[in-house]
Amino acid sequence: MKKTTFLIVGKHAVLEALKNTSRKVERVFLTEDAQKKLNRENQNLNLFKKSPVFYKSRKELDNLCGRDETAHQGLVAEVEKLEEITLKEFIIENKKNNLNLIALEEVTDPRNIGSIIRSAVAFNVDGIIVKERSFPDKSKLLYKSASGGAEHIKIFKVSNINTALKFLKTKNFWVSAFDVSAKKDFTKHNWKGKNILLFGSEGYGIKAKTLENSDFRFRININNNIESLNISNTVSVVCHHIFQSIN
Which CATH superfamily is domain 5-80 in? Predict the structure, then answer.
């Protein structure tokens, strides 16, 4: 059976996909200007030998990308999905003492998700749990925003976030919810051990039922002139602090 393919765009997304030995890249499309720029930047053009390369004009790539309004930077790749591992398989196989997973409830904007992936990789988060139905796993915007990070982290797609949280709690994970109405400063917490970092939707936050499954509720202290941070900024601040505190 032929595997389903989709397009990813942008220099970092395409180059990291080509470097990833687990990713099947069916075809690469690029402009001559993009190749000249890669030459000037001393990028490893041997990467392009692993897949058929087709030279296109910028307008042809615009048409190929459709209406996503994604800046392709003269580089587009047709790829297959990565082979997935289930959350349960990952937990059984992983023996680390310090383990941090992000759980996203109803976060749907592909730019935000891509930025979250990028931050998660930058700060050594071990995986991201998403609701399968609301995760745009073939979004060009997501891959572009992730800037190649999607090749370096496990994404666990689950049918129900609460079911996943309950399972993880039986495996000695602590669930920490980040909520604007919380009172406790997250920087005062001891982050060593196994943690689930729970974040809610861009507009409505974490659902009340999901909050019931949290062990801790934290806030980020910010200037009173700003009500809250964007979800991707929030995740980045939290992950940076935890990375610094456990290393």
Answer: Ribosomal protein L30/S12 (3.30.1330.30)
